[in-house]
Write a structure and sequence with these properties.
By secondary structure, the chain is an alpha/beta fold. It has helices at 21-34, 40-43, 46-52, 59-69, 88-108, 120-135, 158-162, 171-181, 223-235, 263-276; strands at 114-118, 143-147, 211-219, 240-249.
């Protein structure tokens, strides 16, 4: 009979043969479009950030989530690096979370049920959850929706070092993001759980943690962040669901459903998860 495996994982999701021709062609197109052009840190201007990276840029996905689960959605426009490095953006999210815990029912007709975000937003949502454990210890979120999050800003997870494709983001871009967000910090300092949530000691916190949905594509250099954080969440005793989408790059949920296999599936997984945890 053999021994029972205490850790279940569908390895086929990570098999390169599971990537559809549609997704591989889409990824190659993204790489070609970016080739020869300046990198983020070479061209990024404050004015461009105001135009392209504000809280309203997430509205299409937030509108889908609001309709999918009949929710009121509040989008937090937090301060951004490099003009406002750590901890300013974090503090904006903490203030917003505390305000909603205290005032959501009076202001919006219902309690705060969920938090979430994509990429840096998932990172901040995880940190805000830990923050509320201290400042609002009697409050309980129903669930988190954490989409291709970055949870290790210290040495970064192994796949970040192994992933060689310049596909949306890569090690070089992440190094510059971290330098802008955490200027002058050492790797050891970035292991602080207030910076890198993957280093948070979750032992004994399982009953206090909300359920969490971690979603990520296999062609994302942050893939291991979601896999490792999801495993750690589950090890605490809290509910964690990790969903893997073969061939999907970083940011894939923002593309048209027809463009990539996995976009519609991921959005439906979010819909189901939120409804199950109302």
């Amino acid at each position: 009979m053999g021994i029972k495996n205490d850790f279940a994982l569908d390895a086929s999701k990570f098999d390169q043969n599971s990537v559809s021709k549609k997704n591989e062609a889409f990824n190659e197109t993204l790489i070609k479009v970016a080739q020869g052009g300046p990198r983020w840190y070479e061209r990024f201007q404050l004015e461009a950030k105001k135009q392209t990276q504000n809280d309203r840029s997430q509205d299409p996905l937030l509108r889908f989530l609001a309709d999918a689960a009949n929710l009121v959605v509040v989008s937090v426009g937090y301060r951004l690096a490099p003009e406002d490095p750590f901890p300013k953006g974090n503090e904006d999210c903490y203030d917003a979370a505390e305000y909603l815990v205290d005032n959501a029912r009076a202001k919006f007709g219902g309690d705060l049920l969920f938090m979430g975000g994509e990429s840096a937003g998932a990172h901040l949502a995880a940190l805000a959850t830990f923050h509320l454990l201290t400042t609002r210890p009697s409050f309980r979120l129903h669930a988190l929706n954490l989409v291709f999050g970055c949870f290790d800003l210290a040495g970064m997870t192994p796949f970040m070092h192994n992933f060689a494709r310049p596909l949306v983001i890569d090690r070089d871009i992440m190094d510059h993001y971290i330098a802008a967000y955490l200027p002058g910090t050492t790797e050891a300092e970035r292991r602080d759980p207030s910076i890198s949530p993957i280093y948070k000691d979750l032992r004994g916190l399982g009953p206090k943690l909300p359920a969490a949905l971690f979603t990520v594509g296999t062609e994302d250099c942050l893939r291991d962040d979601s896999v490792f954080m999801g495993a750690k969440w589950r090890m605490s005793g809290a509910e964690a669901v990790v969903k893997i989408y073969p061939g999907c790059p970083h940011g894939f949920v923002f593309y048209e459903e027809e463009a990539l296999d996995g976009v519609k599936e991921c959005k439906e997984d979010m819909r189901t998860f939120l409804r199950e945890h109302m």
